Amino acid sequence: MKKIAVLTSGGDAPGMNACIRAVVRTALYYNIDVYGVERGWAGLIDGNLTRMETRSVSGLIHKGGTFLKTARCPEFVELEGQRRAAETLAAYGIEGVVAIGGDGTFRGAVDLSNNFGVKVVGVPGTIDNDLAYTDYTLGFDSAVNTVLWAMNNLRDTMTSHDRVSLLEVMGRRCGDIALYAGVAGGAEYVLVPEVPYDLDEIASSIRKSRMRGKTSNMIILAEGAGNREEICAAIRDKTGIDPKVTVLGHIQRGGSPTMSDRILAGKFGVKAVEVLREEKDSCAVGIRNNKIVTVPFPDVFSAEKRFDKSLYETSKILGL
Ligand code: ATP
Known about the structure:
2 domains; Rossmann fold; 11 helices; 7-stranded mixed sheet
């Protein structure tokens, strides 16, 4: 393959820039021409492509977001949008695409590949860690570290005021951000969509811990695990204590990527280009048991997300 393109699509995640850099530099290393596509699939439809050189990706490794920008593109879900994207690629003589994004981005990749014969390699870029075929997605580690930073600050103020804090974090239907941050940040209660919880039990545990002399508690709530106002109301009714709510929101999506995410970005980027260089079938790259793997798209979508029950049990033991 002599010409490839790279794009970022869907929600942004720390490490996307580092991964674009890795794709560009690996392509150039192998004497493959590489184009950056602006605003994901929309940029392919509109023909927003720029030829990348080594210096095009200088000074980016430490920056959050994506300098290529990202977008949601409803037109690309339709065959006509995909046709226009394929025509752009053909006009440039581009045979392969590296698409960095989440589940939706990968579905677009499959359509472009199946309907128009373009080879596409997916790189899992999303803070949610909700792609089952890979142990980790790019941006997850950075997001968890951002949550930890927030927990540290919250802990200062909640211990000064003897408060119960409820911190809501992202993750959609996946509780990994809450779970990992909960364990690493020492939250007393970790509420995730994967495990049912009992608010009576939590309230009674808070009451008992107060009697033992513990004056503050932190509850970390994954956004998909329940309604924060209802949870607070239940705790207030049963304990007389009004939890203070913090919703971290999009702060989790930004910031400088961590060491782990930068290294993952580098490894994913190198592997993605090598797959295209060897003209292998469209697939997604991932990491399993600390090894970089390639997984065919049908297996990407049929994989079942494994929740780390043992880490969850750890959170319960340590949160006592
Ligand atoms: P995140 O997990 O961060 O939200 P994502 O990649 O899942 O990222 P989406 O908005 O779901 O984000 O998808 C990105 C883009 O991929 C969509 O705007 C659309 O252009 C394309 N896409 C999504 N689903 C499909 C589909 N079923 N077929 C073709 N293209 C799709």
